[in-house]
Design goal:
- With about 325 residues, the protein is an alpha/beta fold.
- It folds into 2 domains: about 250 residues, Rossmann fold; about 80 residues, no CATH class.
- It is about 35% helix and about 15% strand.
- The chain is built from 11 helices and 8 strands.
- Helix 4 packs across helix 5.
């Protein structure tokens, strides 16, 4: 049964296959992000003031009393408005569950206050978020999902905590997480990926960093940041500088979640498409790289946080349904 689960072929789950009209990882990624429209979900905003003087913002959908809670850790420069977040929260609401998109620092539409940001291995903030969500619904099952950067951060926390994670989380899932950040970083800094995906992310990342450089003089090199064109440059100039790493390579090596997959102790689904433009299939873990609590699903297609399905013009319903099945909800 363990090997069947890792292959993604166990009862009640249809393995993901991309529609024939949308071939290739780049097309699946870009089409799902740019052309599949997902309606906004009405949310309740909550701000958590932190002891260090900063804050975290949560966007909630409220369900039935005592119902399970799903907390979503978003991807790089994502948030409650991201299509995958909207669709997941809509499905959570349809189940009568509670759900929240937990925004990393500076990702809720307002810059955070401190000379720090968010990053792919921020275990301390992952724990802060989970403890806060659990405090709001202490008797309810809590399920955690992480997407891309948020998936890596969640998996890193789960691996570091081991059995202790069960005190907060009942089950977890990570989607398109860059499990090997060095492999992902080098991939995104070359060719088409650099010109399209990296350039897109750097537009907002650099703008935030330049505002922080102006607010905290002498901390960051604004001129160098303005000229950065790769993740390696940005992570060396900003992420490493703000969070205590030597440079991008040191950061990528130290926060990658792949080495910690062997110590995860609670049921955790890890979904990565083999044609994800952000992470080469050669960097994906095999069954021997993970604990018995981890279920690997690695479909041949799906792109990066895309997994479009259905006839043209398509939808992105497969992913939230798969996550909720993992968490024990009936698919709708």
């Amino acid at each position: 049964m363990r090997e069947a689960r890792r292959a993604g072929h166990f009862p009640g789950d249809a393995p993901y296959r991309a529609p024939a009209w949308l071939p290739g990882g780049h097309l699946q990624t870009l089409y799902a992000s740019l052309f599949i429209r997902v309606a906004p979900v009405a949310c309740r905003r909550e701000r958590l003031e932190l002891p260090d003087g900063d804050f975290l913002d949560f966007d909630w959908v409220d369900g039935r009393a005592g119902a399970p809670v799903v907390v979503l850790f978003h991807g790089l420069e994502g948030g409650a408005g991201s299509p995958y977040a909207r669709r997941l929260m809509a499905q959570v609401r349809a189940c009568g569950w509670h759900g929240t998109v937990a925004h990393f620092r500076g990702c809720s539409g307002e810059d955070n206050r401190l000379p720090r940001a968010y990053f792919a291995g921020d275990s301390e903030d992952v724990e802060r978020i989970l403890r806060h969500v659990k405090s709001q619904h202490p008797a309810a099952p809590l399920y955690a999902a992480g997407v891309s950067l948020g998936g890596n951060a969640l998996l890193k926390w789960l691996g570091e905590q081991g059995e202790s994670a069960r005190a907060l989380v009942d089950a977890a899932a990570a989607v398109s997480a860059p499990l090997d950040l060095s492999a992902a970083g080098h991939t995104l800094d070359r060719g088409f990926q650099r010109r399209v995906y990296t350039a897109h992310f750097l537009l907002t990342l650099k703008a935030k960093a330049l505002r922080k450089a102006a607010r905290f003089p002498g901390m960051l090199d604004a001129e160098a940041i303005a000229g950065a064109t790769t993740f390696r440059e940005f992570d060396t100039l900003v992420t490493a500088r703000l969070h205590g790493f030597r440079d991008a390579e040191d950061y990528w090596r130290r926060v990658s979640s792949k080495p910690l997959l062997k110590t995860i102790a609670l049921p955790t689904l890890v979904i990565n498409a083999k044609n994800d433009p952000f992470l080469p299939a050669s960097a994906l873990p095999a069954a021997g790289n993970v604990s018995s609590a981890v279920t690997l699903e690695q479909p041949d297609t799906g792109g990066h946080v895309a997994f479009p399905s259905g006839p043209f013009p398509g939808n992105i319903d497969w992913l939230p349904r798969r996550l909720l099945r993992h968490f024990g909800a009936g698919a709708r």
